[in-house]
Structure formats: structure tokens, C-alpha cells
Amino acid sequence: MGFSLQHPWAFAFGLLGNVISFMTFLAPIPTFYRIYKSKSTEGFQSVPYVVALFSAMLWIFYALIKSNEILLITINVAGCVIESIYVIMYFVYADKKARWFTAKIFIGLNVGFFGAIMLFTLLLFKGDKRIVTLGWICVGFSVSVFVAPLSIIRRVIQTRSVEYMPFNLSLSLTLSAVVWFLYGLLIKDKYVALPNVLGFTFGVVQMGLYMFYMNKTPLIPEGKIAAGKLPATGEAVTEMAVPRSCKAEAMSHHSPAVNMV
């Protein structure tokens, strides 16, 4: 339905969503260029990229089961390719411990859990029941992953630093949520529309926080930056700039595929 010219507005929003989402998928490129140059992952986490890959795989499966959802397939195929490159690069440049952790997460989530979902939906359900079950699985997973933005919002409030939450990325994710919500609404697919209501809400909150804290002096306790610890209530802190690595890590936590559809 989304690709049909009989639904020109749905097609237009789906196409626009593809463009915005594709650009958002490319947001972590500076992080991985830095990893490539330094030949080290420098403490960056692989989980956001493994989760983003899983999300793209899940939405492709949903679109294939529902059928005639070309615009969902195209963007998530692109997402699978891009996130796979990120995961491979991380695996190549990570130390032994991080590499083993990434392998366990990948096998457990992208192979084991995804395989279980496929078997569960294909063997136990048929027709519309299969679409409904898979749709709610997609919605549930998309909503659960919003825990990452919540942690970033908390960190911004505690450190009074917007370096953890780049405005351009928050804006692009908000626009993406709006476009995909309208797309889902027009094709009457609540499973596509519902997660993006929450995506839009979090995006607006993040941009509001950015505007509020953009001129504030960042507060980070000395000696705790590397450990990623935040100041406890009443703890003395020293004013200093937030390190660049924190910004890149925050960007990586905005998993694009999660909010794309």
C-alpha cells in the first residue's frame, strides 16, 4: 500500500522518511572514522549498533510478512547494510574483551532471538494473526529501546551539558518520527505509527532540554570522566569541558533504526 501511487501522500511521506532515515543512519560515521584512524574503539559501545541492526531486521521481516510495504523494506535494508558495516568495524578494532562481548550480544539477539521470533510467528500463527502478533512485537521492541534516550536526558540534566545530546541528531530523529507516524497513519498501520508518537515526544523533550542547557556551564567531577560516573547529590564538582568522546558515545546511543518506523 505504501508504494502504491493510489496513495500519493503515503508514498510521499514514505519516500521522505527514507531520505531522512538514511541520513540519520549515517550520523555515526564521524565516530567510526575516529575508530578507524585510531585503530581502537576507545571505549565506545557496540550495543547501539547491534540493536539497530536487529531492529532493521525485525521491520524487514514485518514488511515482508505484511507484503507490499516496499518503502519499509528499502530503508531497513539500507539500515541493515550500514549497521552491519558499523558492527564489523567495531569487531575489527575492538580489544579481545569487547570483541567477545559484541559476539555474544550479536549471536544472542540477531541470531538467537530473531530466529525465535521467526519460528514463533511462522509456526504458531497464520494470516492476519501473524501480522498482528509480529506488529505488536515490533511496537514492543521499539518502545523498550527508548530507555537509551532516557539515560541521555538524565545525563544532560545532571551534567548541564548538551554535548551528550547533539541538537541536529535530535531534530532529525524528531522529523523522522513525524514523517513515519504520518506514513503509518495514511496506510492505516498502527504498528508503524504508534512507536513514533513516543519518538516524537522524546525528540521534542530533547530539543527543549538543548535550548535550556545550551548556555549553561557543564559540570563534571574530576577523575570520574573516564569511568562515566556522574556527580552524586551534594558532591563537589569542578567546572570543565565535556570530552569529545562523550558526545560521540551519546550519538551512538541514538539508534536510528529503532525510530525509523
UniProtKB/TrEMBL annotation:
CC annotations in GO: plasma membrane
Annotated compartments: Cell membrane
Major localization listed first in the record, in broad terms: membrane
Pfam assignment, any one: MtN3_slv
Annotated keywords: Cell membrane, Membrane, Repeat, Sugar transport, Transmembrane, Transmembrane helix, Transport
Lipid bilayer topology: Multi-pass membrane protein
Transmembrane spans: 12-35, 47-65, 71-93, 105-125, 131-153, 165-186, 192-213
Annotated InterPro entries: SWEET (IPR047664), SWEET_rpt (IPR004316)
Superkingdom of the organism of origin: Eukaryota
PANTHER family: BIDIRECTIONAL SUGAR TRANSPORTER SWEET11, RAG1-ACTIVATING PROTEIN 1
Complex and partners: Forms homooligomers and/or heterooligomers.
Family (UniProt): Belongs to the SWEET sugar transporter family.
Function as written in the Swiss-Prot or TrEMBL entry: Mediates both low-affinity uptake and efflux of sugar across the membrane.
Name of the protein in question: Bidirectional sugar transporter SWEET
Naturally occurring in which organism (per UniProt): Urochloa decumbens
